[in-house]
Inverse folding.
């Protein structure tokens, strides 16, 4: 048992740190508008690509860095520590679509799409959830009928982040309505400029427009865009899960630690409304103890993540314990942001001031999604109960 | 970087578990709890000594196995899991600070040392190499041949003599026999200053390790019961109300386990802020043990409320653990002080 990194790993850390310091763009140049953000992310991804840092966990045969597990840990830690902006508009392509093609795509699909994804040339979005298929994804109803060399798709998808700026979509459609739920689904690459598609942004409770709903009215997609076999899409969708070996989570965890540090600073300088003498929040016993609890839990999160990575290093398999970490992380993130609201007091009610000063409010609203997106906390608890603990379904 | 056990550490775990299964099973502990806990412990202690359990972290030249705090953590995980009675922590710590024949006696199991931390109501007056003490809530006094005493500043060793008067007290936790103890005995300082603080951190983190074993056992018990107990024609573990509570228990166990491993390694390696990591582990282990202890009772329904079911024993241990080396509030205050500094 050991907390230290080898001299080679430390050298890798210095190299990563120096490159990030010299090359990271400032996050505030990113802007708000999705197209502007995508443009920013593309330039940043291209810079990483040109310097050989893109796709830290992608195999070298697909142009990635092919870094070892410990190097990935270090890269993600350094990336967050440098406060380098996450190219979030490219997330689906880099973390999901790309890895799925690597696992299940044809040679043509791989050689056409992977270089574009890795270099930041294209934005991908996801078309999995539907109005009637959220936690119960296998209940999806969007139909695709095979007609000659095409699939003809009709239906609706929802919660499609960046659907309005993406060029491609990883789309799950039902190709065999007679088959058992998991057996009649196909995984298709859908070009977002295909005829018959309508994309409408959805405004979130945080007031921003990032997701869309997508309508398909007899959209023709070449059959050659099916990844894996027809009706084998559920397995294709699941194949990606083993690609993410828990390391990418390190960035989020370092960012949460930074958020807690910022919260301590906020508490140090913000007079507390409920205090008769208007002492700063950090002097208030109740607030200070909640802060201390958060710092302790953030540290435990790092230890949990290291343990999960250690387990993966032993087995070569992603550890099921990832869902424990995810659940703990998402709820902790919400506690941290809620505490920020209690420190700030009634000034949070006014939201027409510049974002920079008040992004605690935005963040607080945003993290309501962290126990919903990509598997609600209820689904996470089912996964823990059934897959880790072995309780009956 | 590696926070998993090695094969060698797995083997240590296996050895301890099989020893405890044979010698200190929970059934046996329960029988002792009904009568005199001292009875029979001598033999168990000798065997534990012969297996090297009190000297895992000592150098081989000092009669030890040449392992470290991480292997002791594994020993205490197992002790906590099986709710093993006896003065384990005092003996392991005494083996660290004593020398010569006394150390050899602790190591071979002939000098069990009960750990005492001085409470507000206790008297512990040291003068000229002797102590006049009036102590309450001393665990394992009857089976001890010496006391290892921490008064929040220094550590002392008090050898048993004819002056000891021990009277058993009714204990919240039946697996941890408590007594009052008065004595007028020889007393030696065995650690002070930096080494005293370091020994207190070691004691704290090994308590955490013991708690982690208990915390993990509460998850196992709830899961085992959830699979077999049926209501409304199905196992109760299939109901989300139960399943999700078990999931939360598993999360807390992983939090406690990870924080404890991290702090143990930090302390072993002399990392600068090891004391901070120990406080984090102590806080989160207390949170986890107290809540998992309660949830485990709830998951067992009416059975969970009975004396016969083991669930209450873990709950009671959780309270004992919380009060060892500073309860939750004390740990939180220490962390608050760091934030304000």
């Amino acid at each position: 048992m050991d907390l230290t990194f080898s001299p080679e790993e430390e050298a890798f850390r210095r190299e990563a740190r120096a490159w990030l310091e010299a090359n990271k763009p400032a996050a505030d140049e990113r802007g708000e508008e999705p197209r502007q953000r995508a443009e920013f992310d593309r330039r940043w991804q291209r810079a990483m690509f040109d310097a050989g840092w893109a796709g830290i966990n992608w195999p070298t045969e697909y142009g990635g860095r092919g870094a070892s597990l410990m190097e990935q840990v270090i890269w993600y830690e350094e990336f967050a520590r440098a406060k380098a902006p996450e190219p979030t508009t490219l997330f689906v392509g880099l973390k999901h679509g790309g890895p799925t093609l690597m696992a299940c795509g044809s040679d043509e699909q791989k050689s056409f799409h992977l270089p574009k994804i890795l270099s930041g040339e294209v934005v991908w979005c996801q078309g999995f959830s539907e109005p009637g298929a959220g936690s119960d994804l296998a209940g999806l109803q969007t139909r695709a009928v095979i007609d000659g060399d095409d699939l003809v798709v009709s239906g609706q998808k929802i919660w499609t982040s960046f659907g309005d700026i993406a060029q491609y979509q990883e789309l799950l459609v039902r190709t065999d309505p007679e088959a058992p739920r998991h057996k009649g689904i196909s995984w298709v690459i859908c070009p977002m400029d295909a005829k018959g598609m309508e994309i409408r942004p959805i405004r979130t409770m945080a007031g921003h427009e990032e997701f869309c709903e997508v309508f398909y009215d007899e959209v023709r997609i070449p059959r050659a865009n099916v990844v894996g076999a027809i009706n084998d899409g559920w397995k294709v969708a699941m194949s990606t899960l083993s690609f993410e070996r828990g390391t990418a989570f390190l960035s989020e965890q370092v960012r949460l630690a930074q958020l807690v540090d910022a919260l301590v600073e906020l508490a140090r300088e913000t007079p507390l409304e409920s205090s008769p003498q208007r002492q700063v929040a950090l002097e208030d016993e109740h607030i200070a103890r909640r802060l201390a609890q958060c710092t302790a839990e953030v540290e435990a999160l790092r230890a949990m993540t290291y343990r999960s990575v250690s387990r993966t290093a032993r087995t070569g398999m992603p550890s099921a314990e990832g869902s424990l970490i995810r659940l703990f992380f998402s709820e902790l993130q919400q506690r941290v942001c809620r505490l920020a609201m209690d420190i700030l007091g009634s000034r949070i009610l006014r939201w027409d001031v510049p974002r920079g000063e008040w992004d605690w409010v935005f963040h607080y609203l945003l993290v309501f999604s962290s126990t919903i997106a990509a598997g609600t906390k209820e689904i996470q608890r089912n996964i823990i109960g059934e897959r880790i603990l072995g309780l009956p379904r | 970087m590696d926070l998993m056990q090695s094969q060698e550490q797995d083997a240590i775990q296996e050895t301890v578990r099989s020893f405890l299964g044979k010698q200190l099973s929970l059934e046996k502990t329960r029988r002792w709890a009904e009568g005199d806990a001292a009875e029979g412990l001598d033999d168990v202690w000798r065997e534990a000594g012969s297996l090297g359990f009190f000297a895992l972290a000592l150098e081989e030249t000092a009669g030890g196995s040449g392992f470290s705090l991480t292997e002791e953590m594994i020993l205490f995980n197992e002790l906590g899991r099986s709710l093993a009675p006896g003065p384990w922590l005092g003996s392991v710590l005494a083996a660290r600070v004593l020398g010569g024949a006394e150390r050899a006696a602790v190591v071979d199991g002939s000098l069990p040392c009960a750990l005492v931390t001085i409470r507000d109501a206790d008297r512990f007056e040291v003068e000229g190499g002797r102590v006049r003490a009036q102590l309450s809530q001393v665990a394992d006094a009857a089976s001890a041949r010496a006391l290892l005493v921490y008064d929040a500043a220094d550590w002392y060793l008090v050898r048993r003599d004819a002056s000891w008067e021990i009277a058993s007290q009714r204990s919240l936790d039946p697996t941890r026999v408590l007594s009052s103890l008065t004595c007028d005995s020889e007393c030696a300082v065995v650690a002070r200053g930096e080494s005293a603080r370091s020994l207190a951190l070691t004691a704290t983190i090994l308590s955490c390790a013991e708690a982690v074993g208990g915390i993990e056992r509460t998850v196992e018990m709830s899961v085992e019961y959830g699979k077999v107990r049926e209501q409304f024609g199905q196992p109760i573990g299939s109901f989300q109300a139960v399943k999700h509570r078990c999931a939360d228990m598993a999360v807390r166990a992983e939090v406690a386990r990870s924080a404890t491993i991290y702090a143990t390694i930090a302390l072993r390696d002399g990392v600068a802020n090891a004391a901070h990591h120990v406080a984090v582990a102590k806080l989160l282990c207390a949170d986890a043990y107290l809540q998992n202890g309660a949830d485990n009772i709830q998951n067992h329904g009416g059975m969970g409320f009975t004396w016969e079911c083991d669930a209450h024993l873990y709950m009671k241990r959780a309270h004992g653990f919380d009060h060892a080396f500073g309860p939750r509030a004390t740990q939180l205050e220490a962390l608050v002080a760091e934030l304000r500094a």
Remarks:
- Chain B touches chain A through 49 residues (CB under 8 Å).
- Residues 193-228 of chain B form the longest helix (36 residues).
- Chain B has a mean pLDDT of 96.
- Chain B has twelve helices and nine strands.
